[in-house]
Amino acid sequence: MSTSHLLVLQVVIPLVVAPLCILIRKQALVWYVVLAVSWGTLFSAYRLLMQVLGHGEIIYFLGGWAAPWGIEYRLDVLNAFVLMIVASIGAIVMTYAKCSIIKEIAEDRVYLFYTAYLLNLTGLYGVVVTGDVFNMFVFIEISSLSSYAMISLGRERQALMAAYRYLILGTIGATFFLIGIGFLYAMTGTLNIADLGVRIPDLENTRTVITALAFLTVGISLKFALFPLHGWLPNAYTYAPSVVSAFLASTTTKVFIYVLLRILFSIFGTTFVFDIITLDRIFLASALLAIFSGSITAIYQTNVKRMLAWSSIAQIGYMILGVSLVSVTGLLAGIIHLFNHAIIKAALFMCMGCIFYRFNTVQLSDLKGVGRYMPWTMAAFILAGLSLIGVPLTVGFISKWYLIMAAIERDWWWLAFAIVAGSLLAVVYIWRVVEVTCFQSVTTKDHPEANQPHMKEAPLSMLIPLWILVIANIYFGINTELTVDVARQSAEWLFGIK
Amino acid sequence: MVVWDKMMTEELLLLSVIVLPGAGAVFIALAGERHRNLREAITLSTAVLLFIAVLLLYQGIDNDTHLVVEIIEPVAGLSLALYVEPLGLLFGLICSFLWIITSIYSIGYMRANQEQNQTRFYVCFALAIAASMGVAFSANMFSLYVFYEIITLITYPLVTHSGTEEAIRAGREYLGYLLGTSICLLLLAIIWTWSITGTLDFTEGGVFVDSDLPAGLLTTLYVLYVLGVGKAALMPFHRWLPAAMVAPTPVSALLHAVAVVKAGVFTVVKLTVYLFGLDELVRTGAADWLFYLAGATILIASLIALKQDNLKARLAYSTVSQLSYVIMAAAILTPVSILAAAIHIAVHAFGKITLFFAAGSIYVTTHKTEVSQLDGIGRRMPWTMAAFAIGSLSMIGVPPTAGFLSKWYLLQGTYAVESWVAISVVVISTLLNAAYFLPIVYVAFFREDKEEKETHGEAPFTIVLALTLTAVGTILLFVLPGRLLSLVQLIKV
Question: What is the average pLDDT value for chain B, to the nearest integer?
Fold first, then answer.
C-alpha cells in the first residue's frame, strides 16, 4: 500500500468506524475499537510525517480527479506535524479514557461519546489534510458539531448550556468562514488552496478579497478562541468530561490555528496580510491581551478545570504572538508551541480527570492534601505545570526561548519582558493548586470520610497515559531535534524560503 | 589508551558529583520512614562519598586539561555542561563538606523535635545538594540557570516543611522573590546575551570582549543579571530570606550557609569574572552601581539586624549583610577583591552555619527563640554558646577566626582602588556586627539566669558534635589558610 493512500484512510477509517460504534453499543468493546482506530491512525500519521520529511509533499487526488477540479489532499511538513499532534493526543487520551468516561458520562451514553469522538477525529484529520477550502469547511463543521455533542455529555446541567453557547458562537464562526470562502470563490472560481494561492495575489487590491480575509480571519479566530472571541471556551472546558477537555484543549484549537496559518500564508501571502493589511498589529494586541487577561483570570478561579481553560486562552495568545512577530523564528515559536501546549494541557486536564475519578470534584477548596492520596497524579501535575510555566528542560521552555528570541530579533525589549512576566503569572496560578493539594495539611473537616478505600491513587490505566505525556514533556524539552526541525521547516515553508 | 582512560575517569568523576546525591535521594526515598536508621546511614554515606568525589576533582585541578562534560543539548549550541574551575571547586568543596556536618546535625535535630515528613526532608535535601553541585560545576550560564532554578523548586518543600499557614505564606514569598527575579530578569538577560554573542560559555575575560558593546547596554545587562540572582539577597530582593526563617534549623543552615544563598553570591561572582570579565566591566563602569547598592545593603541589613529580638531573624539579616560583602568585593573589580569574595564565601559558610546550629541547638533543648530569653544560657549549654561565640567573632572579623581572613583581603582590595566609601562601609559594618552579636554572647555567659528552675543541659550529642566541628573549622581556616588561598589564587581573573 503506498503511503499516499494512508492520507485518505486517515480520514475514512474513523468516519466508517463511527457508525459501527452505535451498532456495537457494548461499552468495553467500543472502547477497544476506538482505541485500535486511534493507535492505527497515529501509526499512519507517523508514517506520513516521516514520508514528508524524507521525500517532500504528498499529494492525493480524491477519486482520481486532478485539482483544481477534484478535491485534493495535500500534506506538507506543517500539516503532517499537526496531524501527528492530533493523532498522538487522540491515541493517548483514548488509552486514558476508559475509566474516566465511565465515571463522568452516564452509562447509556458512553457509546455515543465514542461515536462523537470518532467523528470529531474524522473532522480534525480532514481539516488538516485537505487542500480544498470548501472541503475544509465541511470538516470544520463535522469536528465542531461532534465537539458540541461531546461537551453536552458532561454530567452537570451546565454542560448543556456550555455546549449550547459553544454551538451558537461556533456556528457564527463557521458561517463567517463560509462567507469568506464564498467571496474567494466569486473572485477566482476555485476552491483549491494551492490554486487560490496563485490567483489571489493578482486580485489583492479588490475590496472583495479584503472582505474575504476579514471574514475568514474572524471566523476562524472565533473557533480557536482568540481574545476577545474566547467567550465560549471557559465553560465548555469546565463542564465537559475531563477526557473531552483534555482532547479538545490540545487538538481543536491547534487545528484551527493551523487553518489560520494555511489561509494567511498559503492563500493570501505574507506581503498582503502583514505589510498591506497589517494584520500582525491586531494579532499582537489580542495576543498580549489574551496572555495577560487569560493568566490573571486564571489566578482567580476556584475550579481547577476552569483555571486550566483560562490558561488555555493565555497560551493561545502565545501561539498567535509568535505569528504576529512575522519572522521565521516567531512562527517557529508559534508552531512548536502548538505541539508543546498540546502535550502540556492534555497532561494537566488528565490530572484533573484522575482527581475527579477519586474525589468527585475539581474545586480547589475541596482538594486540600489530595497529594497525600495521589502522589503520582500530583507529581505529574507539578511537572506539567512547570512545563507550562516554561522551566528549562521542559517543552514549555523551548517555546518561550524561541518566542523571546523572536522578540529580541525585532528589538522589542518590552515584549520580551512581557513574555517572561506572563510566565510569572503562570507560576502563580499553577502554584496555587500545588500549594493547596500538596502542602496544606489534611484535616478531617475537609475530608470527613478520610482514609476511606476510595481515596487513593488513580488506576494505572489512567496514570500510565498521563505519565507518557509527562515524560514527553521532558523528553521533547531536552531533545528538540525533531520538533524544532519540523517547526523550522514549516515556518520557512510558509514564508516561502527554500 | 592510558590517556583516554584517564579522561574517562575524570568525566565520570565530574558527573558523579550530581549523580551521587541524586541517587542518594532515590535510595533515601526507598528506605523511607520504616527504616529510618538505614535512611540516615544512606544520607551520611552519600555525603561522605560526594565529598571524596569533589576532593578527587580538587586533586586533579593542577593539570591544564580543560575537561568539559556535555550532558544534553536542548537547543543547538546550548548545552547542559559541566567543567572544573577553581571558584566552582571551592563552592563544591564547601557545599559537600558542610552537607556531611549538616546531616549529622539534622539527624539529631529532626529526631529530637519529632518532625513530620522526615523522608521528604532528606530527599529534598539531597536533591538540593545535587543541584548546588550542578551550579558549582556549570560550564555555561544556561546550565547554571537550570540548576539554579532546580534549587529554588526543590527547597520549597523544605521551607514549608511544617505545613503551617505561616510556613506556606513564607514559601509563597520564597518562590515569589526567587522565581520572579530569575524568570523576569535573569532569564531575559541570558537570552539577550545569547542573541548578542551566540555563546553562554564561561570564558576567561568574559564573552563580551569582541562584541564591543556600548557601556549603557552592558550596564543594563549587568543590572538584569545581578538583580536576577535573587538568591544573593541583594536589597530590595532580600525579603524572602528572613521570611524563610520558619523552616527547621537544618534547612536554615542549608539556605544560609550550604547551598541557596551561597549559590546566589557564587553566581554573581562567577558571571562577573567569567561572563563579563573584570577588564570589560572596568572599561565600561558597568558595575559601579552595584558597589553602592551592595554597600548600602551591608549597612541597612546590619541596622535591621540590630533591632531583631528573634535570634534566627537576627541571623537572617546578618546573612543579608554578609552576602553583600561578597558582592561588594566582586564589584570592586580587582583581582585581590575577587580573591576576598571567594574567601568570604567559604568563611561566611562556616561562621554562619555554626551560628544557626547553635540557634537550633538552643531551640531543641529549651524551645527559646528570642535573644532576650538567653540570659545565662551559656552555663547550661557551654559547647553551644562557645561555638556561637566563635561564629560571632568570625562574623565580626576578629582573629583567630576565619572572618579576619576575608576582611583582610577585602581591605587590601579597597586600598588598591583607594575607595574610601568601601573602607568606611567595612569599618562601620564591623562595628554594627559587633553591636548585634557581642551582647548575645555577653548575656549568655555573664548574666544571671532568672529562671532557676530550668533544668535542661546540653543539646543531643549529634547536634553538639556538628556545631563543634564547624566552630573548629572556623578557627582552622584562620590557622591553616594555605589550601584555601592556593585554591582561590588559581581563579583566572
Answer: 84
Neighbours of B479 (CB within 10 A): 11
Amino acid at B430: T
Least Cα distance to B365 among B437, B438, B467, B253 occurs for B467
Are B172 and A440 an interchain contact pair (Cβ–Cβ within 8 Å)?
no
CA–CA separation, B419 vs A120, rounded Å? 73
Residues contacting A407, CB < 8 A, separation 6+: A325, A330, A413, A415, A416, A419
Q: Are A251 and A126 in contact (CB under 8 A)?
A: no
Question: Do residues B466 and B105 make contact, with C-beta atoms less than 8 angstroms apart?
Answer: yes
Residue closest to A257 by CA, chosen among A333, A324, A320, A322 = A320
pLDDT in tens, A25-39: 888 889 999 999 999
Extract the C-alpha cell encoding A333.
515559536
Considering only CB atoms, which chain A residues are within 8 Å of B74? 392-393, 397-398, 477-480
Residue pair A385/A348 in contact (Cβ under 8 Å)? The answer is yes
Q: Inspect the interface and report whether the beta carbons of A424 and B184 lie closer than 8 Å.
A: yes
Output the CA–CA distances (angstroms, integers) from residue B204 to A164, B43, B330, B345, B491, in the order listed.
65, 37, 16, 21, 9
Closest by Cα among B295, B477, B342 to B397: B477
Contacts (Cβ under 8 Å, ≥6 apart) of B381: B361, B362, B365, B456, B457, B458, B459
- Alpha carbon distance B1, B248 (integer Å): 51
CB-CB contact of A150 with A240 (8 Å)? yes
Query: Could you please report the per-residue DSSP string of A314-339?
Result: HHHHHHHHHHHT-SHHHHHHHHHHHH
Task: Say if CB B149 and CB B143 are below 8 A apart.
Answer: no
Per-residue CA distances from A246 to A313, A318, B178 (Å) = 14, 19, 32
Residue at B426: amino acid letter = V
Instruction: Give the angle subtended at the CA of B247 by the CAs of A439 and B147, to the nearest 5°.
Output: 80
Q: Residue B309 has which C-alpha cell?
A: 529580638
* Cα B177 from Cα B98, distance rounded (Å): 26
In chain A, positions 394-433, which contact chain B (CB-CB < 8 Å)? 397-398, 401, 404-405, 408-409, 416-417, 420-421, 423-424, 427, 431
- Strand-pairing partners, residue A58, are A75
Q: What are phi and psi of B198, to 5 degrees?
A: 75, 5
- ipTM value for the complex: 0.83
- For B154, other C-beta atoms within 10 Å of its C-beta total 21
User: Can you read off the three cell numbers belonging to residue A234?
Assistant: 471557559
* Residue B309 CB burial class (10 angstroms; 0-12, 13-18, ≥19): exposed
Q: How many CA atoms lie within 13 A of B63 on its CB side?
A: 10
CB within 8 Å of B76: residues ≥ 6 apart: none
CA–CA dist B430, B292 (Å, integer): 17
Percentage of residues in chain B having pLDDT higher than 70: 96
Q: CA–CA distance from A131 to each of A57, A84, A141 (Å)?
A: 12, 17, 16
Residues on chain B touching A404 (C-beta within 8 angstroms): 187-188, 191
Distance CA B327, CA B293 (A): 9
Segments making up each domain of chain B, as ranges:
287-493
Q: How many CB atoms lie within 10 A of CB A55?
A: 9
pLDDT by residue (tens digit) across A69-111? Answer: 788 898 989 999 999 999 999 999 999 998 888 888 888 888 8
